[in-house]
Amino acid sequence: MSRRGLLYFTLSEIKPRIWFMLAGCNFRCRGCFRPARDVDGTSLTPEETLKKAEQACLNHYGELATEAIITGGEPSISKEYLLSLIKGLKKKGIEEMVLIFKRFICRVLLMKRK
C-alpha cells in the first residue's frame, strides 16, 4: 500500500470543501510555497487520509464535503496514492475536484451516475 506525506488539510468556511496539501516536490519553481517541497508531513495511506478527512468534515460541517482540492508539493509524484485518493473521494461523494500540479490546474467534475 502506498503512503504519502500529508502536511495538512483545510476545511472551507464558505461551503463543504476540503483542501489537501501533500508533501514533497521534484520541481524548484520560483515563488514556491517552501513547506510544500519538503517530504515531511504525516505519512498516511490513501485510506487513512480519507478516514481523517471524513472525521474532520463530519465534526466541522455535520456532513461530508462535496468538493476537494489536491495540491502540494507535487501530487503526481506518487501516482498510486493519488489515484487511490481520487477514487476514495469519489466514493465518499465528492462531486468536484481540483488538482493543482506541475504549475497547472485541472478541474474535474465527477458526475453522479443514476
Write structural notes for this entry:
The chain is α/β, with parallel strands linked by helices and 114 residues long. The chain contains 2 helices and 6 strands. The chain has helices at residues 46-60, 79-91; strands spanning 4-11, 17-22, 42-44, 67-72, 96-101, 104-109. Helix 1 (46-60) packs parallel to helix 2.
List the main descriptive attributes of the protein structure presented here:
114 residues, single chain, alpha/beta
Offer a concise description of the structure.
The protein is built from two helices and six strands.
Order of helices and strands: EEEHEHEE
Average pLDDT reading: 85
* Largest sheet: spatial strand order: 3-1-2-4-5-6
How many individual β-strands? 6
Secondary structure category: alpha/beta
Gap from first CA to last CA = 31 Å
The number of domains = 1
Summarize the helices and strands and which ones pair or pack.
Elements: E1 4-11, E2 17-22, E3 42-44, H1 46-60, E4 67-72, H2 79-91, E5 96-101, E6 104-109
Parallel strand pairs: 2-4, 4-5
Antiparallel strand pairs: 1-2, 1-3, 5-6
Helix pairs in contact: 1-2
